[in-house]
Design a protein that fits this description.
It contains 23 helices and 24 strands.
Length: 720
């Protein structure tokens, strides 16, 4: 989809919206959506705001193209025709609203804003096709096949539309600002999603991978697991700096960046992210990148550069596994993506100086596991030049996962002679903390990559870097989980230095305690009357009749408030209970048997549309009354377990929580949503500070315990 021509300003009579005002527009739109009962948190709000912005963006483009055609430019046929264009139903602030607006958007057939009868907006958009060669229509249809309007108030929806109508997508200033604001909103959504969010690669990691891989204008760049588009956005920025001519601009816009994202929500978010950052026609494949047979991919399917963070821990079905060689079939998604990446790299470079190359984030297991993983490591070393393994500390991907990760850098220039290993060091202020890892409150920064960037072109062995030859790695069964030689001999710190470090850790701990105390004391000034849970949540009673031939997603609700996740996806024929309840993202779900053990969660997006028996009651949260994040803090606390135990009835091993009594349970509830959101954010900060405090105290204890061995070592060392 082409980008509206960027101008330094807007049409006469309009004014350029400042970054502050644009931020206010988006915040106000999100605040309006918070009042709607159909939306639960940013997981619902951001996708809805995105499809509204998407339609405004398309219409700004269409208006510009029509004007160019009127002035003698290329003949133009709109991708979206009347009366479905933004200008037909959305641009007039006094236009269709309320139930009429909801019917126009949601219904398969309706009375349209111009008074005629026909398909509703979404039904029309989903039916678009590129029979006339216009790929824009395919993109629009794909976007809206995965989108639903969850707002229940047509009046609130009209208010949101009126806010978005003030944004000018033809202004380069506004577009640049919107791109930055949108990235911030994506981070907010991922944070709200927790375990259910799309796996987020921290911006410093993305930027580093792009910098050292160094894509050049004229090369093709692919991310086969695009997510919301982080690698493609950063690559676009990097390539844009190389643009010098009109021809360069055309190359960048039409033949440089490609992605693949089969999930409907991240596909929409990726499209919008790239559009807002300046890519005219994002070329994102909406299907599974693993769907084609590896053996059938030839040179025309290959690219120059691949940058990606494939899904960790996922499992692919047998049909997908059948696309891979018999001896390299596995259900492990990461290993299938690694094979795809190796196959997709060009065997002859586009430019003589640069062979095709890849940078891929992988979990630790990929470096040492046997079976298919070992075979792929051998392939990397014999068929490619695996020149660098960057080992990242734990916690880099917090709070999304604490899995230790690595980045593999390889190219098609030759087979591997030697592999450089580089252990990214923790910053000095975290090196003595318990667990020795990054945290959600103290994450990896771009500045911490500066030593690695300086080392990259001028490699020498040092405290962070070492190398092994192909033969040395081959002797160890191609194990890449190597340890730096400096770790193989025992050394002890200076006792005086340990004492100084303990003093620093104690002072930092005291500072964190003072911060926690000040924040939590501020809660005592709030007014929060007790409200029965039944006033703000209601038990869902919508059931589905299980059909033998259909597939259904079933949940498991983990104890100790560790969330809900997919238990399995099975055919109806094997399900015994034929009438079950439908569950939706951002509902509250609990296990009647194990609620007393903390088996209670906010439903993640991965379980949206799943099913649950009566032993897993599901409750719709009234988001016009309560902020879901606040509710999480009110209900998911260890101190509540005794209350849930008291609400449970039955024999010792089969005690079940009484739902009616659960709904009568009273919780403190600040009256305003803004106040609730502020409390939730304060409690989130306190949670992270408490985690940080735990790390500091744990680190202090570890340092104190090391004093004895360090003192003995230095005594004996002095006498030897």
């Amino acid at each position: 989809m082409a980008q509206p021509k960027k101008t330094s300003g807007i049409e006469a009579g309009s004014t350029i919206t400042s970054a502050q005002v644009l931020g206010s527009v988006l915040k106000t739109a999100r605040d309006i959506m918070r009042k709607d009962k159909g939306l639960n948190g940013d997981l619902d709000r951001l996708p809805l705001l995105t499809w509204i912005m998407f339609l405004k963006f398309v219409d700004d483009l269409e208006l510009q193209r029509e004007e160019e055609a009127r002035l003698g430019g290329p003949k133009f046929r709109p991708a979206i025709e009347a009366p479905y264009r933004w200008r037909d139903w959305a641009s007039n602030s006094q236009g269709v609203t309320g139930e009429e607006l909801l019917a126009f958007i949601n219904s398969d057939a309706t009375v349209r804003p111009d008074g005629t009868k026909g398909p509703g907006l979404f039904a029309y958009l989903r039916s678009l096709s590129s029979s006339n060669g216009d790929s824009r229509r395919d993109v629009i249809a794909t976007v809206f096949r995965g989108v639903d309007n969850r707002m229940k108030s047509g009046y609130l929806l009209r208010d949101v539309i009126n806010k978005v109508a003030t944004i000018h997508f033809t202004s380069s200033e506004e577009l640049h600002t919107l791109g930055s604001l949108y990235e911030t909103m994506l981070r907010d959504m991922r944070d709200a999603a927790g375990d259910s969010g799309e796996f987020y690669t921290p911006r410093p990691v993305v930027r580093f991978m792009v910098e050292v891989t160094d894509p050049r204008l004229g090369e093709t760049v692919l991310d086969p697991a695009s997510g919301t588009g982080g690698f493609l956005v950063e690559s676009f920025r990097y390539l844009e700096e190389q643009v010098k001519t009109v021809a360069d601009r055309k190359t960048l816009q039409t033949g440089s960046l490609f992605g693949c994202e089969p999930k409907s929500l991240p596909y929409l978010l990726c499209q919008m992210n790239l559009l807002l950052h300046g890519l005219d026609a994002p070329q994102i494949d909406p299907d599974n990148a693993l769907r084609a047979k590896l053996s059938e991919m030839g040179q025309r399917d290959r690219v120059d550069v691949i940058l990606t963070n494939p899904p960790f821990g996922g499992e692919e079905e047998r049909g997908i596994q059948g696309n891979f060689p018999d001896d390299r079939r596995t259900s492990e998604t990461t290993l299938l993506f690694l094979q795809l990446i190796m196959r997709k790299l060009k065997r002859s470079a586009s430019t003589a100086a640069s062979p095709a190359r890849a940078a891929v984030v992988v979990p630790n297991g990929t470096l040492y596991e046997s079976g298919v993983a070992q075979k792929l490591r051998e392939d990397l070393l014999t068929d490619f030049n695996l020149h660098t393994v960057l080992r990242l500390p734990k916690g880099v991907f917090e709070p999304y996962t604490d899995i230790a990760t690595n980045i593999l850098f390889f190219d098609t220039g030759r087979s591997t002679n030697e592999v450089w290993f580089y252990e990214h060091p923790l910053p000095e202020h975290r090196a003595h903390l318990k667990g020795k890892k990054y945290s959600a409150t103290d994450g990896l920064t771009w500045e911490e990559f500066k030593p690695t960037l300086e080392w990259w072109p001028n490699r020498v062995e040092n405290d962070a870097a070492w190398k092994l030859t192909f033969e040395e790695i081959e002797k160890q069964d191609f194990d890449l989980a190597q340890v730096h030689p400096r770790h193989k001999s025992v050394s002890f710190a200076d006792p005086a230095g340990i004492v100084d470090e303990v003093k620093i850790l104690m002072e930092r701990s005291n500072s964190i305690i003072r911060t926690i105390e000040a924040e939590l004391l501020s809660l005592s000034r709030l007014s929060a009357p007790n409200v029965p849970l039944g006033d703000i949540i209601s038990k869902r009673r919508e059931t589905v009749r299980i059909a033998d031939e259909e597939y259904y997603t079933r949940p498991t609700v983990q104890m100790h408030f560790r969330g809900a996740k997919i238990r399995d996806r099975v055919q109806g024929a094997v399900i015994g209970t034929k009438n079950q309840f439908t569950i939706y993202a951002n509902d509250l779900i609990l296990s009647r048997i194990d609620a007393r053990n903390g088996a209670m969660a906010i439903v993640p997006t991965a379980l949206d549309g799943g099913i649950a028996t009566n032993d897993f009651p599901v409750f719709e949260i009234d988001t016009s009354r309560v902020d879901p994040q606040y509710l999480r803090f009110a209900l998911f606390q260890p101190e509540m377990l005794r209350i849930y135990e008291n609400l449970s009835r039955g024999s010792t091993n089969r005690r079940r929580i009484a739902v009616d009594e659960f709904l009568r349970l009273q919780i403190p509830l600040p009256e305003g949503l803004d106040e609730q959101e502020a409390v939730a954010k304060l409690l989130m900060r306190s949670e992270l500070n408490i985690e940080n405090l735990s790390e500091h105290l744990g680190g202090t204890i570890e340092e104190i315990r090391s004093l004895i061995s360090a003192s003995l070592f230095h005594v004996f060392a002095a006498k030897s």
